[in-house]
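Teaching note: in complex prediction, the entire set of molecules is handled at once rather than each chain in isolation. The prompt given to students was simply: 'Predict the structure of this complex.' The entities are:
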Amino acid sequence: MPSLNDTIRNSQIWKSVFRHPMPVDRRNRVVVMLTNFFLHLHPVSIKKQGIALSYTWCMGGVTFFLFLIETVTGVLLMFYYRPTLEWAYNDILALRDVTSMGVLRELHRWGAHAMVITVWLHMYRVFLTGSYKPPREFNWVIGVILLLLTLLLSFTGYLLPWDQLAIWAITVGSNMARATPFLGHEGPGAQLLTVGGIDMITNASDARFGLLGARFVGEETLNRFYVLHCIAIPLGVSLLLAIHFWRVRKDGGISGPL
Amino acid sequence: MHGDYSVFLDRMSGFLGGYYLVLALMNAVAAFYLWESGKAKTIFRLGRFPVTTALLWLIVSGVFIVIAPIALGGGAGLLRLPRAVEEGVNRFMDPTVYTLGSLVILAILFVFRRFFVQPTVAWIMLNLSLLVMGLSMTNPSFADIVTKPDNVPIVAMVYLLSFFTWLSAYRAVQNDDRARRGEPPLEALENEKVLVWPDLVYIELICMVALTAVMIVWAVALQAPLEEPASSVKTPNPSKAPWYFLGLQEMLVYYDPWMAGVVLPSLVVFGLMAIPYLDFNKQGNGYYTIEQRKFAYVTFQFGFLVLWVTLIVMGTFLRGPNWNFFGPYEIWDTHKVEALNNIDLSEYFWIYMLGMGRPRAPEGAGELTKLGYILLREAPGILLVLFYLVAVPPILAATVMRKFFVRMGFIRFMVLANLLLFMAMLPIKMLFRWTVNLKYFIAIPEYFLNF
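The expected output is the structure of the full assembly:
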């Protein structure tokens, strides 16, 4: 009489899903890494020091996991939240006071703060171990872009609750763009860009306008930041993450003494 | 007033009781770990009885256990720093003292790292900092700003950064000692390969579970901030950018937005990306070390810890209404007035040095004439900046950075030198502002070009 466990494992359905037997012996522990989609990001074997927490701090992994938490909680929040002047604030208010799973917003916000911190710590570790040195130079560059995108994700999300904290933080942050050299209407050199006496760079055509979609933080900005926050930047991050992980493998796995 | 304070203390007592209990537990665990693993060091002997570090932490734990019920039982008011200390700190602290102080402290930690990385010393410092933190929490102004929901992560970040800086330095010091003895770094010792399943995937799984637990506790315990509905006519004072950009906002004190908000941040990103292509040092790849890459280490730590993190901490905790500086125990008074009489370099040159007025275009002059006069007026600053950016790199290449120049070649060296010079611009401007109230090196408000 085969056990229930065996029956399930030997069924056609199970075998069609998992392309490998249970990783209980050495051979199958190798096979599982090679034949499972989620595991194939990893090598089959790794130097013992490469997984020591005192070396890696696990900060890259933690950052990625926080990104997953942000994605899941973010999608759930999108079911509820409407990015319009009429509803944005009230929806967040309801998440706090009425909605049963309103704690998702806390998870999402604290996860965002945590992600900014862990991505800095990851960069810190990679620098302190000199892991950006050849052959990993380019992956460091991708990492810097990912760090920047993490900050932009957090920045665009900061506006969505549409409270005083949100719009004034974004106002202060985006006011800088007004002073972009040549491209901001209060930036040095912008006055030089005139055609036939007509200014090309005004407060309705400069870098800040491009960022906000308006002369000040308003409904257009809310919509713009919402789309950037939920679609454009996450797509970019996902693509770069894939390259980042792939390059870790291709550049010789986690760094270590030569 | 007194009544308000006791209400405040009641509100804090639960938190503080738990806080001191956690500190007690933390020290008890440390004591147990040292005793159990046999790693406890004997500090001195009382007769035949050895007083070990394990015993020390047990005593510290006991002290916190005594303090905890005092905080819980309405005695939180006793657990505060002496008034004189709080007021002294408030009076003494200003941007200069804070920034230079942080720099000096970090420099001391760096120079005497061999002493400070010792686990016993580090643990003492951790306990002291947590104790000061706890005592400060009974000050309403301090508690107000530290417990703002969005500021809590920054407190966590400061501790996390301190811990990881310690950890990396601890291992770097060991590796540097080993290198001096001709031994391979610690990271080279565990060379044998292990299978990723189960060794790595289980670590990942445990990290994921632990992190999920932390996030859920954090989310339940601390409510996300939600202020009044957005209003474009009611400007809060102070208006602050999100916390991770507060270093940039702090730079606005010294530079105009086009520098502080656009040029310098872009150069930070560009400079970070350029690091692997500028660092020609082949040593220190894949293990912690300081000695073998001292220049890279010091430059990065100066940029990250001093120019980025301490400025964020100042922008978050010490900048209040009108972006005025407030001590950590000071009430944020909207009406605090700070005299601002900063002077442009051109004023210094034409008015104070030469004793004449600044050159000014005659009435009704053409655009080009006006521009000529502006350039003449700002000539001292323009020449100074040109000298800084054009003449200093070759001077560096010929003198102190000669080896860099030879190893790197012309283009790479110029990129490195210019990035370093731009990085140094902020501290240089700070020094001029603090010492001679310098406003701008170059002030051309006519073209929004103030520098």
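Point out the following to students. The CA atoms of residues 245 and 258 of chain A lie 21 Å apart. The longest strand of chain A covers residues 45-47.
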